[in-house]
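Working notes for the structural subgroup meeting. M.R. asked for a predicted model of this chain before we commit to crystallization trials. I am recording the input and output together here so anyone reviewing the notebook later can reproduce the run.

Input as submitted:
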Amino acid sequence: MGILILIFIFCAGCSSFLGTGHVGIVTTTTPAPTTFPVTPTLSPTTFPVTTAPVPIASAAATSTETPYLTYTNPSSQLTMSYPADWQVQEIDPVNCWAVRDYGKNTCNIVNFFSPTTSTGTYLTFSIDTDNPTTSNLEDYFNKVCGGLETTYPGLQVVHPFFQLKVSDNKAYELDYRKGDANNSPPAVTVVALTGNNVPYIITYTSLDDTVFENMLKSMQIPNTSGVTKQR
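Returned structure, recorded in token form:
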């Protein structure tokens, strides 16, 4: 999923550099920050793409260990693959909810839960949508990151931001920990924008995980109008 792009994001006085496969964020006076700045300042005019992004494959995910099943969301018609031993939680679109409310109409449409381990832990893969936005992806991604920082004070960026594609839609990924301790819970958030400007926010509670990659690769997102959250 590595891409080479330049991205100016989150703070005045920050500059970007090209890394191997990812984009790093550095300040003008110190090495790469461990948290992201409070005020987003990304400008679409300062977002040159130096090379074409590497697309995520659209083929159904496969695994030599656990078979995968196909899921289709009845409201959004999104389809994707997930491990057969995972549980699926569909959310009623009339009463949908989302912990992360970036656009004031964010709707959690489906969650996938891994089997519980002997320690009582499990992984989650959740998908939120929002009403069509007038923001471009860069601005909406900044809004999501600002919301994450508010939700998780002391949030640490684990890997630099980078660009990818999800179901042929441009997307950005952020890998982080939900606190300032090295053992704080990890997570990945991917923000994609469809051709009809419908935001999809995908969150996974682990880092560098093959199952996550398989599920993300398998996603097929139609250009629909999105799900309106009921207040």
